[in-house]
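yo

u said u wanted the structure for the complex thing, so here. seqs first:
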Amino acid sequence: MARPIPATDVLLNLFGAPHQSDLVTSALRLATALLDRGARVQIWTCGDATGLTSAALGDTKPRDLTDLERRHPSTALIVRNLLADHPDRLYWYVCRFCADDRGAADQIPQVSKRSPFLFAEHVKAADKALVMGVC
Amino acid sequence: MTDHLLIESGGPQTGPACERFVGDATRLAGDGHRVVLFLVENGVTAALPGAAPGIETFLRGGGEVWVDTFSAAQRALPATDLAADVRMVEMDDVAAKLLEPQVRAVWH
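structre next:
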């Protein structure tokens, strides 16, 4: 049975290469600002952006050899915390095809993997959609 | 008349696409639409005087240019170095604009 897609105010689509620019920072800043205003937000990742929530990332980034005591959170942990802070208002979807194709099929349990054939339904469920990272 | 929020993230150094996007904003403003051009990430460099001539045309045509304070600070660009008529904004301002029902938005 098809899983329902919650209605949201904004859909942010991360289609671009996530570490080529400030894309991830911008997306997370915008999502947080929208959530702080009470909006409902869904994020859909495609391509290499599916790796942002790969379970293999763990909770922290590799140790910084110039600052061994400091721990930096992984994107997976940042997303997990953001989802925990905004239950029922933030949804994170991962394109199943893109994730599988990049060896990122094992995702953190807080996100949902969806077939790319459902993408249009997600667009329909949002009042507005932004495609980020590609022209 | 429609309200538009056009978001430029690349800037003039990425090639002609930025100038064309600003040109689209100018044409929309010229047709009487309310247009906000938000510069973010490397896009903030378009607000440097002379970096993207289309910005001045857009401003003269009644458009509004917003510059992301965070992106500008990351690139050591104080507001005093940017074109005089731009407005420094926080992401909260962008979220508020995006959530206005009549606003159409494009991220470039």
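The helical segments of chain A are 23-36, 75-85, 96-101, 119-124. DSSP finds four helices and five strands in chain A.
cya
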